[in-house]
Amino acid sequence: MAVVGASADTSKWGGDVAARLLRTETVRPVYLVNRKGGEIHGRTAYPSLSKLPEIPELVILAMPAAAFETTLDEALALGSKAFVALFAGLGETGRDGAERERLAAARLREAGALMIGPNCMGLTDHSTGLQAVAYLDVPPGAIGLVSQSGAMGEEFVARARAWGCGFSRYVTLGNQADVGIAEVLEAFVDHEPTRVVALYAEGLREGRRLAEAAARVVAAGRPVVLLAPGRSAAGARAARSHTGSLASSTAVLDAVCRATGILRVDSPRELFEATVALLDAPRPRGSRVAVITEGGGHGGIAADALEAAGLRVPAFGAALAGRLREALPGSAGTNPLDFALGTTEPDAYARALPLVAGADEVDAVFAVGQLGYWAARFPEHGELVAAEVKGAEAMAASARSAGKPLVVSTVYPDAAPAVRLRAAGVPVYREIASAVGALAALVCVVEARPSGVPHIPRPAASFERAPDYWQAREALAMAGVAVVEGRRVTGAGEALAAAQELGYPVALKALGLLHKSDAGAVALGLGDADALLAALADFEARLAPPACVVERMAARDEGIELIVGCRRDPLFGPVALVGFGGIYAELLQDTRTALAPLEASGAQTLLEELRAAPLLSGARGRGALDVAAAATAAAALSRFAAAHPEVEEVEVNPLLVLPSGALALDARIVLRAADDDALRADEEDA
Amino acid sequence: MAVVGASADTSKWGGDVAARLLRTETVRPVYLVNRKGGEIHGRTAYPSLSKLPEIPELVILAMPAAAFETTLDEALALGSKAFVALFAGLGETGRDGAERERLAAARLREAGALMIGPNCMGLTDHSTGLQAVAYLDVPPGAIGLVSQSGAMGEEFVARARAWGCGFSRYVTLGNQADVGIAEVLEAFVDHEPTRVVALYAEGLREGRRLAEAAARVVAAGRPVVLLAPGRSAAGARAARSHTGSLASSTAVLDAVCRATGILRVDSPRELFEATVALLDAPRPRGSRVAVITEGGGHGGIAADALEAAGLRVPAFGAALAGRLREALPGSAGTNPLDFALGTTEPDAYARALPLVAGADEVDAVFAVGQLGYWAARFPEHGELVAAEVKGAEAMAASARSAGKPLVVSTVYPDAAPAVRLRAAGVPVYREIASAVGALAALVCVVEARPSGVPHIPRPAASFERAPDYWQAREALAMAGVAVVEGRRVTGAGEALAAAQELGYPVALKALGLLHKSDAGAVALGLGDADALLAALADFEARLAPPACVVERMAARDEGIELIVGCRRDPLFGPVALVGFGGIYAELLQDTRTALAPLEASGAQTLLEELRAAPLLSGARGRGALDVAAAATAAAALSRFAAAHPEVEEVEVNPLLVLPSGALALDARIVLRAADDDALRADEEDA
Fold first, then answer.
1. Helix B268-280 with B150-163: angle, nearest 10 deg
2. Could you tell me the pTM of the whole model?
């Protein structure tokens, strides 16, 4: 291994990483390179890579960005194949830096070499003994951490040290000029030493590849927990300025999580706590949590927090309640279970635990309150302290024998009983929110039913130019979307004939405009020939359209209007959207997003997941609508969009769902702008 | 002061509180009482209160519940006027205990005496030097804490000790047999030493009195922060089993908070952190937060969390952005502001702060990331550490001179720079959520516009028995609610005459049934005499109603259906509700609740706060509906309900809002069940 830019000043990256590598130097000899030569940390500093006694397998780049290309060329010429680029100042600074990264990545690929970074803090792989992280020693363990940000990685390590766990692999990726998150995730699929993968991502590349890799890691039994800023506009702005990456909309990222089984969290604390919960705890069979407390109000607050997180705190059945009242006289035997003892009987938790943990109606147990009170507050009461400690041991044993997760939150997380519980594998937290987050992570992972990452079909023949409304109608109809019957007409004669054939009332729509409604190019409910001719004359006077479409008026009163669409996400490619249309679109803000293309069954699930789905299934005395037909249309539209990489967006608004069938009453296809070509190429690679 | 049930065993309440009182004994002599006499903690233990050398002003009751009445009688006979009841085992155990509490409270009132508890942990008032808390020394300061739960109080004190703040008064209330939260709050209105009041409440009594007291405390410039479990069914169950108190619905409690300006939080951590934020920090003028970070992704996560909490992280204006780019070359000058420096320039925060804190477009500053990195991680780099510490001091000075809140969250909250900031009055947190909670508390308090607690009118003449539909219509019409025109009819002749007068189509409704629709006792849209007679014959055959109502059919298509109602909350009395009716009721779950009676302006505000309010104001091309008329009807209904304490619930569903006017199409008045009389009396007292 070689460090280029090695320095004697350990406050600099090149100084710290050199000193750190020398400290852990074992099988791999470490060479230091510094233009000025001399001696650093008691070792010879070589003036360049070519002067080293052997060719380095791994080169750590800690010199300034200005010397990047020269150093890389020299190393590639020597035959080095692996690089860790710590220096900053390229892609995150703007277009020029990004271009230099692109060129370097091409050179690396050509040479069959790999690079992590730049703008990263290095990596550690305890399974191979590789340690090349600046400013940090990474403790060994079973967490795989992948972080774009070195600072986030460092924070995670600080939490892990305090908790007493460690890492199988620790990888910071920075700007991902060459190696990206997707590639690192792929390497976790079969990585036995890793039990959970924690992922901090600001900007993603190779979206589909990443999603597929994550899905495989999850399927291999290694949960993936993701922290990704950008839920707010300001958060997305911040991510962009930090590593220069594009952010997907948060709805798309949530869709990726549903497809792959990734668990998404919202803060560094949650990232750590969910990861640790998934590391060791037995998996619950469901979301029914028993809350037990010695009394003092913590039980109610815990129950509120659990239910807000989507878990359940159901009342106990009569038999269990009876057994609890017997074991803990004075308690009401309900859930939350309040021993009504305050801290006076420190073994109460231990008496309650086997009963609740052993009950079939309980999937997990949350002990909340003041466990460890005497040890923390009044250590002079030795007997009470001893009873607390013994109780803690009994609690851990009960949970273990029941095979169910037990989490504890106490005002006294550092007292002896808490320490004893932790030593026995029971997580003990200071805050109720932490324990709730841990349980929620366990239940989410158990209840997730990843829908999988759909395959993108081979591209169909491209549109040469943007299709107008008539062409969009035709294309979607060909693709299998039922479109309201219509005729393309030029002039009054053709219009009247078409209306005659379709039957009044009809709609008239002018072609040649992108936003028909806004331009006043749509006339609905034309009841007779006079009305049709008047509308046509008006269009011709105002819009001079090349042609018009006459359509049969659909029975809007008999159905409900949906929106179905598909747009191209810059990172994850085609993404389908379904939601309520018409008056409901604005009111309900009720849409669902998923990776495209959809199967009809997947589309139907999305529709059924809409909050206002009861509208479709016969609420309010009306008969059920044909959700299956709507799903078929949405799926056909999404297949069409996925097979057309030149298409930016396809939308049918409204799709009228009827008691039998679903009919597109409008259609819009927008092509990508020309300067998106680079992105398109990228996607086709994947 | 006397402690009854004093004990030598300090693991018992009577032992701990006795020892603690003796340690802090100053102006008030402390006497110990124990049936067995002898000597305790080196003092004479008297066998009963009557044997004391003087009559105790304050008696601390730490004996078992069984001896309560005897002790109380003895003390009242002696002339003692104040009691702190630490013992448990009464109201929280069930009906018998509650009855004993009720009788004792009556005896206390009769004697002009007061009691805190039972089932409490005592109280401290540093403004009078009174300390009577079990198991705890309460540090002095400016927080007023009122907690039903001793355990929650104790947890709050532990957090306060760690933070370095303290209490003006510390009051635990337990079962509130006599003194309740309302009374304690009243004593804070003019309490100069108190700057913020933190309140933990499980069950409330005297709801209106409490709300009025809280409103007065808030109006006096002392924010009130409330933690109350019961948002979930399980949480409400837990609160009930802990102190035997009734819980209000969480929507009602939220309405009380809006009316009074109380800030409601969801966890002990939030209760503490919001309280501390409100203790010292300057008040922001608005919700625009500048986020500054040295880089590493924390900025984006912080921005997401701020916006999720309802704060704003707007982009900086061009002038400020330019100044920032000049001061911090490499940064994008946007918000969040990423210095793009990592930890390499420890004075970057101090350079950014005067610029952002001084800008008019910024109301508060959140510095987030790794502040204190060198001090915490590499203290050997003395120069960098010194620069960090100096930077921290400069940050505090900048914020002070700008007069705006600065909060800090860092991975290294215990390092020297953080300590220095805290000493200078800048709160420094470990978790992003804590800093966001603090800022949210400040903004909430500044932006709250409490609507006030409405006055309940004098009772009107009571209904002797439950009014039927016709009587309900008449009563509401009299009260000022516009009701659709109708006639009470008996037999076909009267029905036909009424329909003739009103004009077809008409509706026919059978009287004598509580749930008309469920019983099939409503026939709508009867277009002619035949249809009316058929419906009447059907009703008579099936339901044999004493009479029917014939009503004009309203033009439902021209308006939107609302629900307006008022029900009697067991704690807070009449509570008004407005929401969307018809198909929207189910779909939108969109209702607003407020303390009744409403003014028309208040009712209009509630209607305008509905999520789907755009439906009323002319969305979707339709003209605006008469929201003012709907508000007038809701206000009239709520005044009616408030003036009828014998009424449990009044509901108009639907109230049809039209382009001009609003018309009740139905009306329902439900009286209270007889066994609610005790509650009613309670409320009338208040």
1. 50
2. 0.91
